[in-house]
Amino acid sequence: MNTYPTITIDLILDRVTIKDVLQAILDAILFHRLFGTVKPTTREVFGVTMPGVSDPEMGQLVEEKVELFWKGIEEGMSKRGQIIITFSEKRPKKSWFQVYVGEDVPWEQWIINAEIKQPRDRDRQKFDAALSNTLTKAIHTMLTHTSSDRGRTAVPLITDATGISPFPIRIAVKIGGVEIG
Fold it and tell me: Who's near 81: CB < 8 A, 6+ residues apart?
């Protein structure tokens, strides 16, 4: 059983919005959980200002995972998927012959559940308004969690202050419950 916080964000997207929205959500989560020196940026998605990090390495990672998600959906594997971001810390673990090796121990996980639906033209305005509302709620969830006692105490001590993140980050993509990539 997981003892670390798991935060879930549910999205209903269409083929037109999928990449922009997923990139914005991933960027916003990373903005709230990267503890190195970050250069902040923002992006407008459906009238909602989303925070992000201006870092080429993180930008490429996010883009690759969103593209992987997009390809999995396009190949018709399923119309539902997840992008899971796991933040870990390196802890020494004794192995055979008293040799210490680093072990990734998760301290927080974010699960983005995305379902793809194609709205009719007459429902487009309603669909876009609902998505804007969902994005606003997602930002509220991020702010509420990261500023809460549980969200702050989940973060382990920072022992290595080099780079943009002192902690290993894993981003997994699942389509129809199967991890791809």
Answer: 69, 72, 73, 113, 114, 173, 174, 175, 176
**Residue 22 CA from chain centroid, whole number:** 8
Which amino acid does the sequence have at 39?
K
Contacts for 63 with CB less than 8 Å, ≥ 6 apart: 23
State the pLDDT at residue 38: 80
Helix then strand count (H, E) for the chain reads: 4, 7
Work out whether the CA dihedral 44, 48, 49, 50 comes out positive or negative.
Answer: negative
pLDDT less than 70: residues of the chain: 1, 77, 94-101, 161
User: Are 117 and 31 contacting, i.e. CB atoms less than 8 angstroms apart?
Assistant: no
Q: Is residue 93 within a helix (H) or strand (E), and if so which, with residue range?
A: strand 80-94
Q: How far apart are CA 173 and CA 112, in angstroms?
A: 10
Edge-to-edge strands of the sheet including 178-180? 6-13, 100-116, 80-94, 169-175, 178-180
